[in-house]
TrEMBL record:
<feature type="transmembrane region" description="Helical">
    <location>
        <begin position="239"/>
        <end position="261"/>
    </location>
</feature>
<keyword id="KW-0472">Membrane</keyword>
<keyword id="KW-0812">Transmembrane</keyword>
<feature type="transmembrane region" description="Helical">
    <location>
        <begin position="118"/>
        <end position="137"/>
    </location>
</feature>
<feature type="transmembrane region" description="Helical">
    <location>
        <begin position="149"/>
        <end position="170"/>
    </location>
</feature>
<dbReference type="Pfam" id="PF06182">
    <property type="entry name" value="ABC2_membrane_6"/>
</dbReference>
<feature type="transmembrane region" description="Helical">
    <location>
        <begin position="61"/>
        <end position="81"/>
    </location>
</feature>
<feature type="transmembrane region" description="Helical">
    <location>
        <begin position="27"/>
        <end position="49"/>
    </location>
</feature>
<feature type="transmembrane region" description="Helical">
    <location>
        <begin position="215"/>
        <end position="233"/>
    </location>
</feature>
<dbReference type="InterPro" id="IPR010390">
    <property type="entry name" value="ABC-2_transporter-like"/>
</dbReference>
<keyword id="KW-1133">Transmembrane helix</keyword>
<protein>
    <submittedName>
        <fullName>ABC-2 type transport system permease protein</fullName>
    </submittedName>
</protein>
Protein backbone atom coordinates (compact mmCIF):
# COMPACT_ATOMS: atom_id res chain seq x y z
CA UNK A 1 0.00 0.00 0.00
CA UNK A 2 1.48 3.33 -1.07
CA UNK A 3 1.74 6.35 1.23
CA UNK A 4 -0.84 8.17 -0.94
CA UNK A 5 -3.32 5.31 -0.60
CA UNK A 6 -2.78 5.14 3.17
CA UNK A 7 -3.36 8.91 3.51
CA UNK A 8 -6.49 8.68 1.36
CA UNK A 9 -7.95 5.86 3.43
CA UNK A 10 -7.13 7.64 6.70
CA UNK A 11 -8.81 10.80 5.41
CA UNK A 12 -11.92 8.87 4.37
CA UNK A 13 -12.10 7.07 7.73
CA UNK A 14 -11.64 10.16 9.89
CA UNK A 15 -14.11 12.13 7.79
CA UNK A 16 -16.79 9.44 7.97
CA UNK A 17 -16.19 8.88 11.68
CA UNK A 18 -16.68 12.59 12.34
CA UNK A 19 -19.78 12.56 10.13
CA UNK A 20 -21.30 9.55 11.92
CA UNK A 21 -20.62 11.03 15.36
CA UNK A 22 -23.31 13.60 14.55
CA UNK A 23 -25.83 10.76 14.76
CA UNK A 24 -24.76 9.16 18.05
CA UNK A 25 -28.31 8.97 19.41
CA UNK A 26 -29.53 7.33 16.21
CA UNK A 27 -26.59 4.91 16.20
CA UNK A 28 -27.41 3.96 19.80
CA UNK A 29 -30.95 3.08 18.68
CA UNK A 30 -29.51 1.09 15.75
CA UNK A 31 -27.34 -0.87 18.21
CA UNK A 32 -30.42 -1.68 20.30
CA UNK A 33 -32.30 -2.64 17.13
CA UNK A 34 -29.69 -5.36 16.48
CA UNK A 35 -30.30 -6.97 19.86
CA UNK A 36 -31.97 -10.09 18.45
CA UNK A 37 -28.96 -12.22 19.59
CA UNK A 38 -29.52 -11.03 23.16
CA UNK A 39 -33.16 -12.12 22.99
CA UNK A 40 -32.09 -15.49 21.58
CA UNK A 41 -29.51 -15.74 24.38
CA UNK A 42 -32.32 -15.87 26.94
CA UNK A 43 -34.09 -18.58 24.96
CA UNK A 44 -30.99 -20.74 24.49
CA UNK A 45 -29.81 -20.30 28.09
CA UNK A 46 -33.10 -21.83 29.21
CA UNK A 47 -32.66 -24.60 26.61
CA UNK A 48 -29.13 -25.22 27.92
CA UNK A 49 -30.40 -25.44 31.50
CA UNK A 50 -32.99 -28.01 30.39
CA UNK A 51 -30.26 -30.36 29.15
CA UNK A 52 -32.02 -30.97 25.83
CA UNK A 53 -28.83 -30.21 23.88
CA UNK A 54 -25.91 -32.25 25.25
CA UNK A 55 -22.62 -30.44 24.71
CA UNK A 56 -24.29 -27.01 24.54
CA UNK A 57 -24.76 -25.73 28.08
CA UNK A 58 -26.33 -22.53 29.36
CA UNK A 59 -22.84 -21.02 29.73
CA UNK A 60 -22.00 -21.97 26.12
CA UNK A 61 -25.23 -20.35 24.96
CA UNK A 62 -24.61 -17.12 26.89
CA UNK A 63 -21.03 -16.78 25.60
CA UNK A 64 -22.00 -17.64 22.03
CA UNK A 65 -24.84 -15.12 21.74
CA UNK A 66 -22.86 -12.33 23.43
CA UNK A 67 -20.17 -12.99 20.81
CA UNK A 68 -22.82 -12.97 18.07
CA UNK A 69 -24.07 -9.58 19.27
CA UNK A 70 -20.50 -8.18 19.19
CA UNK A 71 -19.89 -9.59 15.71
CA UNK A 72 -23.14 -8.08 14.48
CA UNK A 73 -21.92 -4.62 15.53
CA UNK A 74 -18.92 -5.05 13.21
CA UNK A 75 -20.71 -6.53 10.21
CA UNK A 76 -23.68 -4.22 9.73
CA UNK A 77 -24.01 -3.31 6.02
CA UNK A 78 -26.57 -1.09 4.34
CA UNK A 79 -24.70 -0.22 1.11
CA UNK A 80 -27.59 -1.44 -1.07
CA UNK A 81 -29.83 1.42 0.10
CA UNK A 82 -27.09 4.02 -0.40
CA UNK A 83 -26.12 2.74 -3.84
CA UNK A 84 -29.73 2.41 -5.01
CA UNK A 85 -30.39 6.02 -3.99
CA UNK A 86 -27.26 7.24 -5.77
CA UNK A 87 -28.17 5.45 -9.02
CA UNK A 88 -31.86 6.40 -9.04
CA UNK A 89 -31.17 10.05 -8.14
CA UNK A 90 -28.17 10.36 -10.45
CA UNK A 91 -25.83 11.19 -7.58
CA UNK A 92 -23.53 8.37 -8.64
CA UNK A 93 -22.35 10.47 -11.61
CA UNK A 94 -20.17 12.94 -9.61
CA UNK A 95 -18.70 10.00 -7.65
CA UNK A 96 -17.50 8.50 -10.93
CA UNK A 97 -15.44 11.65 -11.55
CA UNK A 98 -13.36 10.99 -8.43
CA UNK A 99 -10.00 9.26 -8.96
CA UNK A 100 -11.04 6.40 -6.69
CA UNK A 101 -13.56 3.58 -6.97
CA UNK A 102 -16.87 4.45 -5.22
CA UNK A 103 -16.58 1.08 -3.45
CA UNK A 104 -13.83 2.56 -1.26
CA UNK A 105 -16.17 5.39 -0.26
CA UNK A 106 -18.92 2.96 0.72
CA UNK A 107 -16.59 0.67 2.71
CA UNK A 108 -14.99 3.52 4.66
CA UNK A 109 -18.44 4.98 5.38
CA UNK A 110 -19.46 1.68 6.99
CA UNK A 111 -16.17 1.43 8.91
CA UNK A 112 -16.63 4.99 10.17
CA UNK A 113 -20.10 4.06 11.43
CA UNK A 114 -18.62 1.00 13.16
CA UNK A 115 -16.12 3.19 15.00
CA UNK A 116 -18.96 5.44 16.20
CA UNK A 117 -21.09 2.42 17.18
CA UNK A 118 -18.47 0.54 19.22
CA UNK A 119 -18.83 2.47 22.53
CA UNK A 120 -22.52 1.61 22.58
CA UNK A 121 -21.77 -2.01 21.67
CA UNK A 122 -19.27 -2.31 24.55
CA UNK A 123 -21.85 -0.78 26.90
CA UNK A 124 -24.50 -3.31 25.84
CA UNK A 125 -22.04 -6.24 26.10
CA UNK A 126 -21.25 -5.09 29.66
CA UNK A 127 -24.99 -5.10 30.38
CA UNK A 128 -25.16 -8.69 29.07
CA UNK A 129 -22.42 -9.78 31.49
CA UNK A 130 -24.39 -8.11 34.30
CA UNK A 131 -27.53 -10.03 33.34
CA UNK A 132 -25.72 -13.33 32.61
CA UNK A 133 -22.66 -13.33 34.92
CA UNK A 134 -22.08 -17.04 34.29
CA UNK A 135 -20.98 -16.12 30.77
CA UNK A 136 -17.96 -14.35 32.23
CA UNK A 137 -17.24 -16.34 35.38
CA UNK A 138 -18.66 -19.76 34.49
CA UNK A 139 -20.78 -21.98 36.72
CA UNK A 140 -20.21 -24.90 39.07
CA UNK A 141 -20.32 -27.26 36.10
CA UNK A 142 -17.99 -25.05 34.04
CA UNK A 143 -15.95 -22.95 36.46
CA UNK A 144 -13.60 -21.63 33.80
CA UNK A 145 -13.53 -17.88 33.27
CA UNK A 146 -14.27 -16.68 29.71
CA UNK A 147 -10.78 -15.70 28.62
CA UNK A 148 -10.20 -16.66 24.95
CA UNK A 149 -6.67 -17.72 23.99
CA UNK A 150 -4.63 -15.10 22.13
CA UNK A 151 -4.65 -17.08 18.90
CA UNK A 152 -8.45 -17.33 19.04
CA UNK A 153 -8.71 -13.57 19.45
CA UNK A 154 -6.44 -12.96 16.43
CA UNK A 155 -8.31 -15.47 14.27
CA UNK A 156 -11.66 -14.08 15.42
CA UNK A 157 -10.64 -10.53 14.42
CA UNK A 158 -9.49 -11.78 10.99
CA UNK A 159 -12.70 -13.82 10.58
CA UNK A 160 -14.81 -10.86 11.71
CA UNK A 161 -13.46 -8.42 9.13
CA UNK A 162 -13.50 -11.16 6.47
CA UNK A 163 -17.18 -11.67 7.41
CA UNK A 164 -17.75 -7.92 7.03
CA UNK A 165 -16.11 -8.02 3.58
CA UNK A 166 -18.19 -11.05 2.57
CA UNK A 167 -21.45 -9.43 3.68
CA UNK A 168 -20.47 -6.17 1.98
CA UNK A 169 -19.64 -7.94 -1.30
CA UNK A 170 -22.90 -9.92 -1.24
CA UNK A 171 -25.01 -6.80 -0.68
CA UNK A 172 -22.96 -4.56 -3.01
CA UNK A 173 -23.17 -7.17 -5.79
CA UNK A 174 -26.95 -7.23 -5.47
CA UNK A 175 -26.93 -3.42 -5.30
CA UNK A 176 -25.25 -3.25 -8.72
CA UNK A 177 -28.48 -4.58 -10.21
CA UNK A 178 -29.76 -1.04 -9.60
CA UNK A 179 -28.24 -0.20 -12.99
CA UNK A 180 -31.08 -2.23 -14.52
CA UNK A 181 -33.75 -2.43 -11.78
CA UNK A 182 -35.43 0.39 -9.85
CA UNK A 183 -35.85 -1.16 -6.35
CA UNK A 184 -33.05 -3.66 -5.69
CA UNK A 185 -33.40 -3.15 -1.93
CA UNK A 186 -36.41 -5.48 -2.12
CA UNK A 187 -34.02 -8.28 -3.18
CA UNK A 188 -31.90 -7.65 -0.09
CA UNK A 189 -34.99 -8.25 2.05
CA UNK A 190 -35.14 -11.75 0.54
CA UNK A 191 -31.51 -12.47 1.44
CA UNK A 192 -32.29 -11.56 5.05
CA UNK A 193 -34.32 -14.76 5.40
CA UNK A 194 -31.43 -17.20 4.84
CA UNK A 195 -29.08 -14.79 6.63
CA UNK A 196 -31.24 -14.86 9.75
CA UNK A 197 -31.74 -18.62 9.91
CA UNK A 198 -28.47 -19.97 8.42
CA UNK A 199 -25.88 -17.58 9.84
CA UNK A 200 -26.15 -18.79 13.44
CA UNK A 201 -27.98 -15.62 14.44
CA UNK A 202 -31.01 -17.55 15.72
CA UNK A 203 -29.86 -21.18 15.92
CA UNK A 204 -26.22 -22.13 16.64
CA UNK A 205 -24.94 -24.57 14.04
CA UNK A 206 -23.65 -26.78 16.87
CA UNK A 207 -27.20 -27.92 17.70
CA UNK A 208 -28.30 -28.54 14.10
CA UNK A 209 -28.61 -32.11 12.78
CA UNK A 210 -25.38 -33.24 11.11
CA UNK A 211 -26.83 -33.37 7.58
CA UNK A 212 -28.39 -29.91 7.89
CA UNK A 213 -25.19 -28.44 9.32
CA UNK A 214 -23.10 -29.90 6.48
CA UNK A 215 -25.44 -28.36 3.89
CA UNK A 216 -25.45 -24.97 5.62
CA UNK A 217 -21.64 -24.87 5.83
CA UNK A 218 -21.45 -24.75 2.01
CA UNK A 219 -23.43 -21.48 1.93
CA UNK A 220 -21.82 -18.08 2.67
CA UNK A 221 -24.11 -17.26 5.60
CA UNK A 222 -22.44 -19.15 8.52
CA UNK A 223 -19.19 -17.30 7.84
CA UNK A 224 -20.87 -13.93 8.37
CA UNK A 225 -21.67 -14.66 12.04
CA UNK A 226 -21.19 -18.23 13.25
CA UNK A 227 -17.48 -18.67 12.44
CA UNK A 228 -16.10 -15.57 14.23
CA UNK A 229 -18.63 -15.91 17.08
CA UNK A 230 -17.67 -19.55 17.70
CA UNK A 231 -13.99 -18.64 17.70
CA UNK A 232 -14.55 -15.99 20.39
CA UNK A 233 -16.92 -18.19 22.41
CA UNK A 234 -14.36 -21.01 22.55
CA UNK A 235 -16.33 -23.54 20.49
CA UNK A 236 -14.97 -26.19 18.17
CA UNK A 237 -14.59 -25.21 14.51
CA UNK A 238 -12.74 -26.64 11.48
CA UNK A 239 -10.42 -23.69 10.87
CA UNK A 240 -9.01 -24.85 7.53
CA UNK A 241 -12.40 -25.57 6.01
CA UNK A 242 -13.95 -22.46 7.56
CA UNK A 243 -11.38 -19.96 6.30
CA UNK A 244 -11.02 -21.73 2.93
CA UNK A 245 -14.78 -21.58 2.30
CA UNK A 246 -14.91 -17.97 3.51
CA UNK A 247 -12.08 -16.99 1.14
CA UNK A 248 -13.70 -18.92 -1.72
CA UNK A 249 -16.99 -17.02 -1.37
CA UNK A 250 -15.14 -13.69 -1.20
CA UNK A 251 -13.30 -14.47 -4.46
CA UNK A 252 -16.48 -15.63 -6.23
CA UNK A 253 -18.47 -12.56 -5.16
CA UNK A 254 -15.56 -10.24 -6.03
CA UNK A 255 -15.39 -11.62 -9.59
CA UNK A 256 -19.18 -11.33 -10.07
CA UNK A 257 -19.11 -7.84 -8.55
CA UNK A 258 -16.41 -6.53 -10.89
CA UNK A 259 -18.15 -8.06 -13.93
CA UNK A 260 -21.47 -6.47 -12.99
CA UNK A 261 -19.74 -3.14 -12.29
CA UNK A 262 -18.24 -2.98 -15.79
CA UNK A 263 -21.49 -4.04 -17.46
CA UNK A 264 -23.53 -1.70 -15.27
CA UNK A 265 -21.36 1.34 -16.01
CA UNK A 266 -21.82 0.84 -19.75
CA UNK A 267 -25.60 0.64 -19.26
CA UNK A 268 -25.56 3.68 -16.93
CA UNK A 269 -23.58 5.71 -19.49
CA UNK A 270 -25.89 4.63 -22.31
CA UNK A 271 -28.82 6.08 -20.34
CA UNK A 272 -27.12 9.50 -20.52
CA UNK A 273 -25.98 9.68 -16.88
Amino acid sequence: MSAYTARTLRTFLTTWYAFMCQYRAEIFLWAIATSLPLIMMGVWVEAGNSGQFPGFTAVDAARYFIAVFAIRQLTIVWVIYEFEYHVVSGKLSPLLLHPIDPMVRYITELLGEQMARWPFGVLLVGLCFFIQPQALWGSEEDPGMWLPAWWRVILAVVACYAAFLLRFLLQYTIALLAFWLERVSAIDSLTMIPYTFLSGLVVPLQVMPDAAREAVLWTPFPYMVWLPATLIAGGEVDLVRGFATLAGWIVVLWLINRWLWRKGLKHYSAMGA
